[in-house]
Specification:
By secondary structure, this protein is of the alpha/beta class. The protein has three domains: about 5-105, no CATH class; about 115-155; about 190-420, Rossmann fold (3-Layer(aba) Sandwich), CATH 3.40.50.1460. Helices cover about 40% and strands about 15% of the residues. The protein contains eleven helices and 15 strands. The protein has helices spanning about 5-20, 65, 70-75, 75-90, 110-175, 210-220, 240-255, 290-295, 295-305, 370-385, 395-410; strands at about 25-30, 35-45, 95-100, 105, 190-195, 230-235, 260-265, 270, 280, 295, 310-315, 350-355, 365, 370, 420. A six-stranded mixed beta sheet has the order 6-5-7-11-12-15, sandwiched between helices. Strands 1, 2, 3 and 4 form a four-stranded antiparallel beta sheet that branches. It has a three-stranded antiparallel beta sheet with strand order 8-9-10. A hairpin with a 4-residue loop joins β1 and β2. The radius of gyration is 58 Å and the shape is rod-shaped. About 30% of the residues are buried.
C-alpha cells in the first residue's frame, strides 16, 4: 500500500529550492557616463513570526500562522496552503540587501566602447596584414637567398671544376718522377757526394732540399754509381765539417784515374755582399760569417779539379742572388753582382747550375722538388736522350733549361739553368 503523504512531503524541499529561498550574487551595470559598477546582493525570505519554524516561508494567504500559534494546531490545512502558495509568496515577500559594492571603473560610454572596438579591430587587421606581408617578404627573401645560394654553388662548382681541370692539366705537364729509373751499366770506379739541406740551424728553410737529395741518390745509382760509392748528407748531417771531410779527405782517397765524380747540392747559397763571391751554406752556416762557416764555390771547384779523377760533374740546385728562393743574405745588407760567375769551367769540372747570377732558384710544390732538380731527374730518366738513347750534358742542359724557363715564367719570374763545361760529355 502506497503512502502518498510522505511522498508529497518529499517534494517540499524541491519546491522550496525551485522558488529560491536564498539568492545571492553580483550584478554589473554600466551607467550613461561610461562607469561600470558591480554590486553584490543577497536575498532571503522574511521570517517575521517568532513561533514560525525556521525554513517555513511567509504566506500571504494565511498570515495568522506567523502570529497565532493556533495556526499550527489547526494542522495540515494551513500548512498545505502555505506550501501551495509559497512560490507566490516568494515573489512578494522577499528581502534583498546589498552585501558588497565594488569601486566604479571607467570603461567608457557605449560610443567610446564602440570606437575602441573599431580601433581594436582595425589594429588587429593591420597586425594581420603586417604578419602576412612579413611572411610574403620572408618567402621572397628565402627564394632570393635560395636562388643566390644556388647561383653561388653553381659558380663554386664551376670554379672547382676549372681548378680541377687546371690541376689535372698541370699534373699531366709535371708527372711524378720514376722512383726506379732504368739503370745503366755499373761503373765501379764512379763516386757521388750528394748534399741536401732543408731545415737549417739558424736560417730559413730551403724547401724540398732533402727530398731532392734522396731522389738524386736513386738516379746516381741508376747512372751506374755503386750504392757503396754514394755518400748522402742530409739536414743536420750536412754540417761544414761533414761536407769537408768527404770532399777534402774521402774523395781524394778513393777515386781513380778513370773515375767520374758527381757532386750534387740542394740548399741555400749566398753571395758575399762586399766581394760578390758565391758560397754554399752548410747546415750550420751563417750568412753573416760566410768565410768561416760556408764553402766558396771556387774552393769546391778547386777541390774537385784537384782529384785524381777523369772528370767531375757538379749539379747545383741553389742560387746566389741574395734575393730569395734558395739564396740568403745577412740581415740588413744587399748583394753586389756575383763576380765569381765565370764563363769557363775549371779543369776537369763540368757545372750544371739551376739559375743565373741574378736569378732565383724556385721549387715545384706539386712534386715537392726544386724545379731544377725535377727536370734534371726527368732528363736523366730518358726525356733528354738523343735518338740513340744517350744522355749528354748538353742534351740534359737543353731539356732542363727549356722546361725550367717556361715553368718559371708562369710564376712571373726568370730562372735559366746553364752549363759550364763539356756539353758532349755522355752520362750514359
Amino acid at each position: 500500500m502506497s503512502r502518498p503523504a510522505p511522498r508529497a512531503l518529499a517534494l517540499i524541499p524541491l519546491l522550496l529550492a525551485a522558488g529560491g529561498c536564498t539568492l545571492a550574487g553580483p550584478r554589473t551595470a554600466v551607467d550613461q557616463d561610461g562607469y561600470q559598477q558591480t554590486t553584490y546582493y543577497e536575498c532571503d525570505w522574511k521570517q517575521d513570526g517568532r513561533w514560525l519554524h525556521p525554513g517555513v516561508p511567509n504566506s500571504p494567504i494565511l498570515p495568522a500562522t506567523r502570529v497565532n500559534p493556533l495556526g499550527f494546531v489547526v494542522g495540515v490545512v494551513p500548512f498545505m496552503f502555505d506550501v501551495a502558495f509559497s512560490p507566490i509568496a516568494f515573489s512578494f515577500d522577499r528581502n534583498c540587501w546589498v552585501t558588497g559594492q565594488s569601486d566604479r571603473v571607467y570603461v567608457g560610454t557605449p560610443e567610446v566602447q564602440r570606437q575602441q572596438k573599431l580601433a581594436q579591430e582595425k589594429a588587429d587587421r593591420e597586425a594581420q596584414a603586417a604578419r602576412e606581408a612579413e611572411e610574403r617578404a620572408n618567402t621572397v627573401a628565402a627564394r632570393k637567398a635560395a636562388a643566390e645560394a644556388a647561383a653561388a654553388q653553381a659558380k663554386a662548382d664551376e670554379e672547382a671544376a676549372a681548378a680541377k681541370a687546371e690541376a689535372d692539366q698541370f699534373a699531366r705537364a709535371y708527372p711524378a718522377l720514376n722512383d726506379s729509373p732504368k739503370a745503366a751499366p755499373v761503373r765501379p770506379d764512379d763516386y757521388a757526394l750528394i748534399v741536401g739541406i732543408e731545415g737549417y740551424r739558424s736560417i730559413p728553410k730551403a724547401d724540398f732540399g732533402e727530398n731532392d737529395a734522396k731522389s738524386v741518390k736513386a738516379y746516381m745509382e741508376a747512372l751506374g754509381v755503386p750504392p757503396t760509392n754514394v755518400i748522402t748528407l742530409l739536414g743536420q748531417g750536412a754540417s761544414r765539417a761533414d761536407i769537408a771531410k768527404y770532399l777534402e779527405e774521402w774523395l781524394p782517397g778513393v777515386v781513380k784515374p778513370d773515375s767520374r765524380v758527381y757532386f750534387y747540392y740542394s740548399g741555400h747559397g749566398a753571395p758575399d755582399p762586399q766581394t760578390g763571391v758565391a758560397y754554399l751554406i752548410p747546415y750550420d752556416g751563417d750568412p753573416s760569417f760566410l768565410k768561416s762557416t760556408a764553402f766558396p764555390l771556387s774552393k769546391i771547384y778547386a777541390d774537385l779539379s784537384a782529384l785524381p779523377a777523369k772528370e767531375s760533374v757538379v749539379m747545383l740546385d741553389s742560387c746566389f742572388s741574395g734575393a730569395g728562393g734558395r739564396s740568403v743574405m745577412a740581415p740588413g745588407v744587399r748583394p753586389l753582382v756575383v763576380t765569381e760567375d765565370a764563363n769557363i769551367a775549371p779543369d776537369k769540372v763540368d757545372i750544371l747550375s739551376a739559375s743565373g747570377a741574378r736569378e732565383i732558384a724556385g721549387g715545384l710544390d706539386l712534386r715537392q722538388h726544386g724545379l731544377f732538380t725535377y727536370f734534371v731527374l726527368r732528363g736523366l730518366a730518358g726525356e733528354a736522350a738523343d735518338k740513340d738513347g744517350h744522355v749528354t750534358l748538353g742534351g740534359l742542359e737543353n731539356f732542363v733549361r727549356d722546361h725550367v724557363k717556361e715553368t718559371a715564367r708562369r710564376s712571373n719570374r726568370d730562372q735559366t739553368p746553364r752549363l759550364l763545361g763539356d756539353a758532349g760529355l755522355q752520362l750514359y
